[in-house]
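User: Histidine ammonia-lyase, Actinacidiphila rubida:
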Amino acid sequence: MDMQNVVVGADGATAEDVLAVARHNARVELGESALAGIAESRAVIDALAAKPEPVYGVSTGFGALAVRHISPELRAQLQRSLVRSHAAGMGPRVEREVVRGLMFLRMKTLASGRTGVRPVVAETMAALLNAGITPVVHEYGSLGCSGDLAPLAHCALVLMGEGEAEGPDGTVRPVAELLAEHGIAPVELREKEGLALINGTDGMLGMLVMACADLAALFTSADITAALSLEALLGTEKVLAPELHAIRPHPGQAASADNMLRVLAGSGLTGHHQDDAPRVQDAYSVRCAPQVAGAGRDTLAHARLVAERELAAAIDNPVVLIDGAGGGRVESNGNFHGAPVGYVLDFLAIAAADLASIAERRTDRLLDKNRSHGLPPFLADDPGVDSGLMIAQYTQAALVSEMKRLAVPASVDSIPSSAMQEDHVSMGWSAARKLRAAVDALARVIAVELFAATRALEIRTTGTELRLAPASAAVVAAVREAGVHGPGRDRFLSPDLEAACAFVRDGGLVRAAETVTGPLA
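Assistant: Predicted structure for Histidine ammonia-lyase:
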């Protein structure tokens, strides 16, 4: 969907701005404060470029080659060479939303008035976004230090009118053709501009912002499926009482417990744990659901705080500092190091993997006749003839195992580069790429639990006077309307699982529960 314009000022951007541009094709424009700041910082660069003394990024080489002073007649070639040589990515194409996010975030930094580019550079980047032209960026090429160099260089190459890009129709074509069709003139880069276009954490930050949005929705979805599983297993909702969570005051835990309690309100199934197979307590995967999901929620809150700080930052090296008297200077720094972003990307992958792990354990419990308290083996219609959801759990287990591998931190690794000048790197881009895979897998894991729990609830209540919680009933009805079939003889399961996953991803699960509960956390 198209959204209203996002106006970029000199004071950073919000997560909502990133999502609007990356995912919803919002148009962007540069505010007056941004244009004024860009012009002011460019004046500093022009003044330094006119002096005989070498200035890094303006009149020198880069990285380990910074010792060479570059004469004025070679400086345009210097910037072109920088971008061309750094556009060295390999592998599959990165998703369109990721590329749009990193382009927007780089434009946001250009608008800060700290990079020294001319206004035309930022304006051309805005024109590319508004035209729906998306540079081809590849999976491999960033070490997450000195910025996401290769991914950003592929975008800078497009500003120069070179390379390949995807047009608004989704077709990859030569950039020169696309720019000409949309009336966009290529930019001839001048002093400092090539460096300013590639020296930021924009790729990993954009993926962090999108992952935070996705995980917030999935944590709510996981609370709902945990409640459905508790209900299907005849568990007790007493462990969700607010007074129990108040004595361990983690805010995420309290939010998850409250979500579950509201979904279970009015259930005729909860509390029957003392009937046929008496239990003093439910299993950990049921009883500790708020503690695990809540810890993930608190991790997410920390990650969002880091993202907010980074969204307010101007990442470049060197950076332009404006003096009060109207002058300015250029200073080298290490703000391009991706450690702050890389750490939380890894942390979120750990939280996602553990949430998936506990959800899979609940699914397995629903399918095991020795632990499901009266449900048929594998929720099959005619066990032995039918296998029920046996292999759906295999699929879920495979996803969880993959997520455990994806939870291995990328940010603890470092491979020196640039002749040992860049001798410690963050690997933040790699952390972001694997988190995207983990978020995708988590949605699938939750979908399998939803599939199993809704089937178990229908089996449990068929032919009895026991009634589902109104919110649970609303979810069951909605998921069936979404094309996920209920109990019965064995059928081709893959379409049901994919429909359940789509139901989770598009927010259908949360919306269905909220028709009864009201807004959930």
